[in-house]
Amino acid sequence: MHRQTTNSTYWQGVRDGAPFILVIVPFSLLFGVVATEAGLNVFETLSFSVLVIAGAAQFTALQLLSDGAPTAIALISALAVNLRMAMYSASLTPYIGGASLGQRALAAYFTVDQSYTCAIVAFEKNPGWSIPQRLAYFFGVVTPICPLWYIFTLVGALVGTSIPEGLALDFALPITFLAMIAPMLRTPAHLAAAFVSVTLALVFAFLPYNLGLLVAGVAGMMTGAQVELMLERRKEARLP
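Predicted structure:
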């Protein structure tokens, strides 16, 4: 019975992750094309996606290096873009922190925006799930996503510049993030962080090497944390 329930949560995860195929395919295809245009060979491009498996950070590093930015700036920017993964991990720990080291390591590798977003919503809705059920759901979400990320990165690298310029594959990036972020803006802290980060990203757009995004990201996180702290203090003050 337990195995059947675990299988059920796995397939629920597959179903929840499947809609992201619509953006993962053109997104990964675009990265493969852009990477080869930037001078990487097919093996380097595929290795980039397999080892890093973080689309936004990959595009950030690749774009900065293509623009002639110092390697240190490219690395710092890519790490800054991926700082959200540390927050994702901290958020998932109460739910799957009791899993084995190997399971946690595998989950850490497959923690991407889509798997985190789907998982945290499902875990909150189903507090009675066991750790095996949660892991089954988590890996179910990545099943239709990550293999296609690898496959179509390879396809993009092989196809290269033969893709017509009029085929606007770059629509995938903003649509992906809008689809993931919008449903998660549920608290004042989320809204404040989003507002501050978007505003400052526009204000500091003039900074070289996209450094304005670093400023906006740090300010957004600080704002969200402060709003959360303020709300907690107000809640405690109201208690008898």
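Summary: The mean pLDDT is 82.
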